Amino acid sequence: MSVLLLYEMEVGMKYLQEVFEFLGKHFLLALPMIIAVAIPNIITGTVNNAEILEGINELSSVAEYAQMDSMEMLRTYLEIMKPWFTASTIAGIVSFLLSLFVVPATYGMVNKGLETGNADLGDFFPQMAMNLPKFIIYKIFNFLVDTVLSLAFMLILALFIFLLWLLKEIGTSVLFLGIAITFVVAVMLYVVIYGIKCILSYWYPAMLVDSMKVTSAFKKAVEVGRSCLWQTVGITFLISMANFFITVTLKNFANTLPRVGIYLEPVLISIPSGLAGFILLAFYLAVYRDKTRKMEDKDVDIFESPGEFV
After folding, report:
1. Which residues make Cβ contacts (< 8 Å) with residue 255, sequence separation at least 6?
2. Which residue among 21, 41, 105, 257 has its CA within the 20 to 30 Å range from the CA of 75?
3. What is the DSSP letter of 257?
4. pLDDT for residue 297
5. What are the backbone angles phi and psi of residue 308, rounded to the nearest 5°?
6. Tens-place pLDDT, residues 6-17
7. Distance, CA of 121 to CA of 225 (rounded, Å)
8. Ramachandran angles phi, psi of 13, nearest 5°
């Protein structure tokens, strides 16, 4: 198992190396993804978090030393948080709309670059017009799948929590054992769902590359994803962790800059996040194209063997 895992990761790193080489030649193709991340971050960056934190601290002090009705405290808290809620709502809407147009266009540009070796930002709008309808269909079906997975996770977790409630009558030691088991089950469920989502990362590439319908692409994604599960999970996790640590580092760096740091931070943290999204997108496309082309070559060899058509 360990040998197979190492082999899968080695293959995954080769694909990742190809993606970085592609990024080096076509770096400008990543700009729309970076911009799509930067604009929502800039919107949320307009909120002064220091003022909000100061307001919450003052509210806590007043609530501690003075009698304050719970509803009045809630209203005051919501009033303090209102700028953050407003900015976050606007940023969420803008992020959704931008991704709706930018992601399918970027998929199309990367796919064209992988196929022909020639792609630039001039392909953005043609690829967006070509791929947007199927991306909308994909997003609807993907939302349904996410809903089913989330409901399954919550129902199973709710069942274990209910069992914990029953166990509390038996004894403390049994209750702690139940809590430990529930935690382990929750982690395992999360890992399984994470693996399923990694497998389904090939869903839209199947619709894009092979012009499949959404249901056929789903089946193809499962087939391809299962054949390269560990490399997909490993590279997805690796890029996600790299993005997290680089983002945190840049955020801390921006906080050390007087005056300009608060304005520079949203832009700085958008660069690794946008690049991470682009790298994963290109990785899924590269793997899908390679795996499916190998499958097709194998099928051609079989069907073209002597006597096959007799």
Report:
1. 261, 265
2. 41
3. S
4. 52
5. -65, -30
6. 777 777 789 999
7. 30
8. -65, -30
pLDDT single digits (tens) 146-183: 999 999 999 988 888 887 777 777 767 777 777 888 88
Block residue for tokens 């003022």: 51
With contact defined as beta carbons under 8 Å apart, do 266 and 87 qualify?
no
**Position 3, amino acid:** V
Tokens of 114: 């992988």
Q: Which helix (H) or strand (E) holds 11?
A: helix 2-25
Residue tagged 């790298």 (tokens): 279
Token readout for 147 is 């809903």
3-state secondary structure (DSSP) of residue 302: helix
**Alpha carbons within 13 A on the beta-carbon side of 190:** 6
> What is each CA distance from 180 to 110, 177, 186, 222, in whole angstroms?
45, 5, 10, 32
Rounded Cα distance between 265 and 254, Å, is: 5
Q: How many residues does the chain have?
A: 310
In terms of DSSP H, where are the helices of 117-260? 124-167, 172-199, 203-209, 214-227, 229-255
Domain range list for the chain? 1-45+228-293, 47-92, 129-227
Q: Taking the CA of residue 96 as centre, how many other CA atoms within 13 Å lie in the half-sphere pointing to its CB?
A: 7
